[in-house]
Amino acid sequence: MGDFAKKELPRHYADLHVHSRHSRATSPSTNPRTMREAALRKGLSLVGTGDLTHPAWLSELKESLELSPETGFYFQKDAPGGEKGPFFVPTGEVSCIYKQDGKTRKIHLVLLSFDLEGAERIGKALGARGNVTSDGRPILGLSARDVLEITLTADPEAIVIPAHVWTPWFSLFGSMSGFDEVSECFKDLTPRVKALETGLSSDPAMNRLVSRLDEYLLVSSSDAHGPDNLGREATVIGGELSRQTLKSALTTGEGLLGTVEFFPEEGKYHLDGHASCGPALTPAETKKLKGICPVCGKRLTTGVLSRVMELADRTVPPPGLLLPDWHIFPLKELLGQVLGKGPDTKTVNEARAKVIRAFGSEYEFLLDAPLDEIEDFGGALLRLAAERTRKGEVKTRGGYDGVFGTVEAVTREDREADLGRNSLFSDEGGKRTGRSFPPRAPRPLFEKDPEKPPAGPAPAPGARGGGQKTPPPGPQER
Fold first, then answer.
1. pLDDT digits (tens, 9 = 90+) for 358-408
2. Which end of the chain is more exposed for a tag (fewer CB within 10 A), N or C?
3. Rounded to whole angstroms, how far apart are CA atoms 345 and 388?
4. What is the average pLDDT score of the chain?
5. How far apart are CA 382 and CA 267, in angstroms?
6. What is the pLDDT of residue 421?
7. What is d(CA 239, CA 249) in angstroms, rounded to the nearest whole number?
8. Interatomic CA distance for residues 391 and 244, integer angstroms
9. What is the CA radius of gyration of the chain?
10. Which of 295, 412, 418, 432 is nearest to 361 (CA)?
11. Torsion angle of the four alpha carbons 128, 196, 95, 117, in this order, in degrees rounded to the nearest 10
12. How, if at all, do strands 159-162 and 103-112 pair?
């Protein structure tokens, strides 16, 4: 399953689950150029193309990308200065909606092909069984098991990963339409499923409370619906950046170093509730209410934490199974808290650009920059924000039923205490040394009484909520 010592290998951050502008509810600005630029800002080495089944997008990728013989991945042909990287690998997501065992199932899968030719074969094979032209994330009336079979028949080297596996509405273990076992979903082809995507509302520590998942690798991706959300989660692989390294990491765990995670509470489906009724409910509160909303009297949307607790048979994740993970929240949100401004304001965007110029990328700043250098660059309050985030000493409010939660590393009181001493806009630039801040040590997610929800930020590390909002007419970004 990997080895923490492998962190000494060169680290590569890979975000494999993304979408193009051809998917529903996505940014129209998404193209290979803007994706590459966003990946550079974030610090990603490898990005999934997204939407590999969509013919128009695949045609654009063929025109825009060129294969790198050194890595086996693709790079943008007309990149400034002829630079190669960040690299691309063909990926896409499909939505399987079908009946099984008397229940409607809605399962999302991430498909990965190592070349555009394989992606084209997959698209044509699935297109013969459903419409892949109207949406970059096509909705297919096929079982997840059959999509897996069709994909592997078209491209035997392809990898299929169940997406955001705990999301209530569209996932393998989702409370509204999923299964209790991987084998119930994939049947005879279950051995071909090697990895599971944890999603934004859960993280590895939560997943490792469920012993039936012990044999599966855990990976993370952003499910970004626009360039700016690339890298909000990522999978960390070590060693030479190559097809074989990625394949080994996703199928055997060799070279899989860990993940970059959201704090789970910030995810849109971490807790239970109804967005139109509120407020968010903990698993214990939901149980007391017998799953019924006290406002409208209808069944509550059961969130990720409750669903994990339902299947969990441990209170603490086994250390031997838990790879390192690094919890972050978006740099714009962190800087907005430091500056007391909205995350999309001009002030924050200018500060973000300055941080990236000084430290190289968001990941370099959030994960690796020495705290002394952060303080020299941006003041004591910026250092405090980075340190609290790295230690997980943040205040959280859980998201529910499509409503994002919040993570707070800096309070108004912190800003007032730091008044006049913030140097984020000084002319001094920070420098990187390449040292790494160690990931948080695991701690129990649930106390011994399984009825009692966790106090404070969920697992040892934290992640952010995955999933889609209540159906129709089509799934939205998590």
1. 999 999 999 999 999 999 999 999 999 999 999 999 999 999 999 999 999
2. N
3. 23
4. 88
5. 24
6. 65
7. 10
8. 34
9. 21
10. 432
11. -30
12. antiparallel
Asked if residue 296 lies in contact with residue 274, where contact means CB atoms within 8 angstroms, the answer is: yes
Please state, in angstroms and rounded to a whole number, the distance separating the CA atoms of residues 43 and 238: 15
What is the rounded distance in angstroms from the CA atom of residue 463 to the CA atom of residue 233? Answer: 8
The two beta strands, 65-67 and 195-197, are: unpaired
Comparing CA positions, the residue from 205, 172, 192, 444 lying closest to residue 324 is 205
DSSP 159-207: EEEE-STT-SSSSTT-TTT--SSHHHHHGGGGGG--EEE--TT--HHHH
Measured CA to CA, the distance from residue 452 to residue 111 in angstroms comes to: 37
Nearest-angstrom CA–CA distance, 276 and 401: 9
* Residue-wise pLDDT tens digits, 306-331: 999 999 999 999 988 999 999 999 99
Amino acid at 325: D
CA trace torsion 71, 77, 81, 87 (10° rounding):
-30
Helix (H) or strand (E) holding 435: none
What amino acid occupies position 84?
K
pTM greater than 0.85 (yes/no): yes
Cβ count near 418 (within 10 Å): 16
Residue 291, amino acid: G
Burial 2-17 (b: 16+ CB within 10 A, else e): beeebbebebbbbbbb
Q: Residues 223, 478: contact at Cβ < 8 Å?
A: yes
For 431-446, the pLDDT digits (tens) are: 433 333 344 343 333 3
Q: Which residues contact 353 (CB under 8 A, 6 or more apart)?
A: none
Residue type, 301: T
